[in-house]
Amino acid sequence: MQKNSDxxxxxxxxxxxxxxxxxxxxxxxxxPEGSESTLILDExxxxxxxxEDKEKTEPAVLNTTETETVRKGSSNRLRAAPDQKERIKNxxxxxxxxxxxxxxxxxxxxxxxxxxxxxxxxxxxxxxxxKALKKEKRxxxxxxxxxxxxxxxxxxxxxxxxxxxxxxxxxETETAELKQYLTASPSDDNVNxxxxxxxxxxxxxxxxxxxxxxxxxNVTAWLIVPGTGxxxxxxxxxxxxxxxxHSFTGEYNSLGAVFLDSTQNPDYRNDNSIIYAHSxxxxxxxxxxxxxxxxxxxxxxxxxxxxxxxxxxxxxxxAFYMGSDDATVYTTDFGDYKSEVMSxxxxxxxxxxxxxxxxxxxxxLSTCNLDYGLYSNQRYVLMGMMEPWSAPIEASVAD
Length: 399
Description:
This protein is an alpha+beta fold. It contains 5 helices and 11 strands. Strands 3, 4, 5, 6, 7, 8, 9, 10 and 11 form a 9-stranded mixed beta sheet that branches. Strands 1-2 form a two-stranded antiparallel ribbon. A hairpin with a 4-residue loop joins strand 3 and strand 4. The protein is rod-shaped and about 190 Å long.
């Protein structure tokens, strides 16, 4: 039996009537063994001790379990070693196979790349070859075209050169042949009596009219213009076109011949007789009439000569004209207006020499002015007053 004095009572600490701290401590110290509170404390202590023992024993158990597990794992690993080796071997084999496959694939890819490069290179080479072939083909075409053009140009040039040579050859041949009809021979007054020899400086012109008429019945005169090289027979046709393209002998030649206007009297009975001939770039015919454009030359050469079967004439140069072919100088019949016509000619002329023309007739020489091209209407015109000349004409006048 426990004493009543050992019984502890639970008192509300908030109660004003509760025990103070000293009383509570006295009660705790005085609580008898075997009381209910003591039993509770003992039970708690036992539980705590069991828990501590359990904590001490659990690691051992855990260590034992882990050791067993490790031991089992080692055993399992030992048993699994052959299989693992086989798997590793298989894995290595598979890895090697994969590596070989990768290498093979890489090789195939590299081969494809190489093939592609070869194809590209081949295509590039082929493209370059095609370009080279096309370039070579174009070059050949261009060369052939140029060669063809050169051949054509050479052929045309050769033909033109031949034409020029041929017409010059014809004129030179004709001129050489015509010289036989105009000779320089002594007159009776030109023979040196002591020696009987001809004095060359006094040789005179003699025209073989019979021979000329035989060569061409249309011949009307022989014209000589000193200082110009003009010394040709004058012919006349039924029109003014024929002798533009035909020589004295009637052969076709673009240099033509010296001819009298077809509307004129062949005996030079018109107030003004017009004689035509070409100017040509290579010289000849009336080309050198242009020399009269020089005033000094005009003054130094006041005469030209017209020889006919019936009468020779010294023609005194009274006008040199440069201009169109519709000028007053082309008037052939003056009528009652000779004075007015001559005044107009004087006004239009580049140079004019005043003359006492009285009843004299005129001869006018006309040719084209090449400075304006072959087909212009621009002309050089030399006009001379005709004076009958009975004395022998010295050969030196042609110089």
